[in-house]
Backbone:
């Protein structure tokens, strides 16, 4: 059933005849007549009584409310898409890892909200592998966290926010000087869960010296790793940005041989919906300001 058939039928009823309906829809009268006839043929009923005046048949009276409801729903859908395209409505699902390289995510959300007050935002967190899985499944629109080129998928785009590097941290009461990872090879370590990117980096670092790291404590975030090391629960390798901000005191060691840390990046689909596209534009502006 074609939409134009419903539009022509409703216009004939509303305007009181085929001639006025044709003028209302800016179509030729034969086209209006043909649309209604095709609609009647498809439905298998007569919708209009045609004499000196055009009136609804019994079937037409029953069908008219459904035709008008379908047309009204379509118009509402058109209005919604127009507001969606103009970003006067919509929703953006943002997922952020605990590690953001000191990038001001809260400030970004505040700026976006001020510019697009009708667009709602949901914010979730988790480890990078989990969040990228959600992006691939279409459960989130934007992921911010440590992700490199190896994490990209076909149909995604990645923009680097800032670089990161790994450092070794030890308790203040621990070794005063550490020159290589081998110096702490038999120490207890604190790290994220075994499926985390940081744990993979820890294993990679120790693999170079042929030792398996002794992870006695697992925790949920880089900040809590720093707190646990400060509490004398072990050593850790961690992103440098975590120890650059204010927090509990630890010893920081810049030692050679640590693997490269993925840059803090934003990941999204290559062709996002308009609200997400506007969010990414705001994010790129924030990235430029962050780099100054």
Residues:
């Amino acid at each position: 059933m074609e939409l134009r058939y419903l539009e022509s039928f409703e216009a004939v009823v509303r305007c009181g005849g085929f001639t006025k309906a044709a003028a209302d829809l800016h179509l030729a009268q034969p086209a209006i007549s043909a649309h209604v006839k095709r609609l009647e043929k498809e439905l298998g009923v007569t919708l209009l009584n045609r004499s000196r005046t055009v009136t609804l048949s019994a079937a037409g009276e029953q069908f008219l409310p459904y035709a008008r409801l379908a047309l009204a729903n379509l118009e509402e859908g058109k209005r919604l898409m127009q507001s969606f395209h103009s970003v006067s409505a919509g929703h953006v699902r943002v997922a952020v890892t605990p590690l953001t390289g000191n990038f001001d995510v809260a400030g970004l959300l505040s700026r976006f909200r001020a510019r697009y007050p009708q667009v709602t935002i949901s914010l979730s967190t988790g480890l990078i592998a989990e969040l990228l899985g959600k992006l691939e499944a279409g459960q989130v629109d934007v992921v911010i966290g440590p992700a490199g080129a190896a994490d990209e998928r076909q149909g995604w785009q990645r923009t680097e926010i800032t670089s990161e590097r790994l450092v070794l941290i030890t308790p203040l009461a621990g070794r005063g000087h550490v020159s290589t990872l081998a110096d702490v090879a038999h120490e207890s370590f604190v790290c994220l869960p075994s499926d985390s990117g940081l744990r993979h980096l820890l294993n990679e670092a120790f693999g170079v010296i042929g030792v398996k790291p002794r992870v006695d404590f697992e925790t949920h975030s880089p900040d809590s790793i720093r707190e646990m090391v400060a509490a004398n629960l072990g050593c850790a390798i961690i992103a440098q940005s975590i120890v650059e901000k204010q927090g509990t005191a630890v010893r920081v060691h810049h030692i050679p041989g640590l693997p490269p840390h993925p840059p803090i990046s934003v990941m999204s689909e290559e062709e996002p919906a308009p609200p997400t596209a506007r969010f990414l534009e705001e994010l790129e502006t924030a990235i430029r300001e962050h780099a100054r």
Remarks:
- The mean pLDDT is 90.
